[in-house]
């Protein structure tokens, strides 16, 4: 049984609601409900009563909460002491991350990992995908996460350097525009409209730019038709430039979702063009023999917990 499921159960009890607990744990409600269901199947008893008002513990649930708290605390303490004897108590993990993942998703994952393993120190360097790949190949970081397509030439470099890759997920790039006329009430933009707009884009070596150009090329469209008004190497700087009316851009929606909530930006889909944007984990297999590297690797490849 995964001990994380016990921790999730404790948060549900303390928050009194699946919804509130899911928000606090930074996972989806269905994923959290599935964890509670796993506990109930394991013990073959109902642990909570669900209603529109929240959750209420059954007698069995009360026992699990009271005894489980003591059990997990004791188990974690024992595990930490054993790892210290194995010389694993002071290790550091260095990670390279491209800007979208590094700025918007990975910090929360590191925070959750540190709650479970407070004795470990994790350092993250945020840069573009090309530089992250170089850091991993030069063995300056334990693992790296890049975004955008990985071409044949780069795969060959990884092979020579002994690096393995694992696709973590696909995101989608959307057009972001200032909130207000003519974009506020629109969901779509045509490709011809996009070609006629002043654009603020990431630099050529970024994964985002590679996704944009490869997608257009694959659809028989010429990337040089993009009317680039400005090139910036920072997504946050691009977002601020779009807010102030300097042009439109194309970025992962996760990078500017907060601005959508506050109606500072509009998000548009390009009609007939899907900018699917992959995130790829780079790692040296030999590093996974180390406990810290292996545990963080397992976190990243777990769909429920990898990113917040």
From TrEMBL:
<dbReference type="InterPro" id="IPR000847">
    <property type="entry name" value="LysR_HTH_N"/>
</dbReference>
<dbReference type="GO" id="GO:0003700">
    <property type="term" value="F:DNA-binding transcription factor activity"/>
</dbReference>
<keyword id="KW-0804">Transcription</keyword>
<dbReference type="Pfam" id="PF03466">
    <property type="entry name" value="LysR_substrate"/>
</dbReference>
<feature type="domain" description="HTH lysR-type">
    <location>
        <begin position="1"/>
        <end position="58"/>
    </location>
</feature>
<dbReference type="GO" id="GO:0000976">
    <property type="term" value="F:transcription cis-regulatory region binding"/>
</dbReference>
<dbReference type="InterPro" id="IPR005119">
    <property type="entry name" value="LysR_subst-bd"/>
</dbReference>
<dbReference type="Pfam" id="PF00126">
    <property type="entry name" value="HTH_1"/>
</dbReference>
<protein>
    <submittedName>
        <fullName>Transcriptional regulator, LysR family</fullName>
    </submittedName>
</protein>
<keyword id="KW-0238">DNA-binding</keyword>
<comment type="similarity">
    <text>Belongs to the LysR transcriptional regulatory family.</text>
</comment>
<keyword id="KW-0805">Transcription regulation</keyword>
<dbReference type="InterPro" id="IPR036388">
    <property type="entry name" value="WH-like_DNA-bd_sf"/>
</dbReference>
<dbReference type="InterPro" id="IPR036390">
    <property type="entry name" value="WH_DNA-bd_sf"/>
</dbReference>
């Amino acid at each position: 049984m995964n001990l994380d499921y016990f921790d999730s159960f404790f948060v549900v009890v303390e928050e009194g609601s699946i919804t509130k607990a899911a928000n606090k744990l930074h996972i989806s409600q269905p994923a959290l409900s599935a964890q509670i269901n796993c506990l109930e199947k394991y013990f073959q008893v109902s642990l909570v009563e669900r209603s529109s008002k929240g959750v209420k513990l059954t007698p069995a649930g009360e026992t699990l909460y009271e005894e489980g708290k003591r059990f997990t605390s004791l188990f974690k303490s024992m595990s930490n002491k054993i790892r210290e004897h194995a010389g694993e108590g002071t290790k550091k993990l260095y990670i390279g991350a491209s800007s979208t993942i590094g700025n918007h998703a990975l910090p929360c994952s590191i925070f959750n990992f540190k709650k479970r393993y407070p004795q470990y120190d994790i350092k993250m360097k945020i840069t573009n995908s090309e530089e992250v790949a170089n850091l991993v190949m030069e063995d300056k970081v334990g693992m790296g996460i890049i975004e955008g397509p990985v071409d044949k030439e780069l795969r060959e470099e990884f092979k020579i350097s002994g690096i393995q890759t694992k696709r973590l997920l696909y995101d989608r790039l959307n057009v972001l525009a200032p909130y207000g006329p003519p974009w506020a009430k629109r969901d779509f933009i045509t490709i011809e409209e996009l070609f006629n707009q002043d654009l603020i884009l990431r630099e050529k070596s970024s994964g985002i730019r590679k996704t944009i150009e490869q997608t257009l090329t694959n659809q028989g469209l010429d990337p040089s038709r993009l009317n680039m008004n400005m090139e910036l190497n920072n997504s946050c700087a691009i977002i601020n430039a779009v807010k102030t009316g300097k042009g439109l851009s194309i970025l992962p929606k996760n990078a500017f979702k907060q601005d959508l909530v506050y109606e500072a930006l509009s998000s548009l889909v390009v009609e007939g063009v899907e900018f699917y944007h992959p995130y790829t984990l780079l790692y040296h297999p030999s590093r996974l023999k180390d406990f810290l590297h292996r545990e963080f690797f397992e976190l990243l490849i777990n769909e429920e917990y990898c990113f917040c």
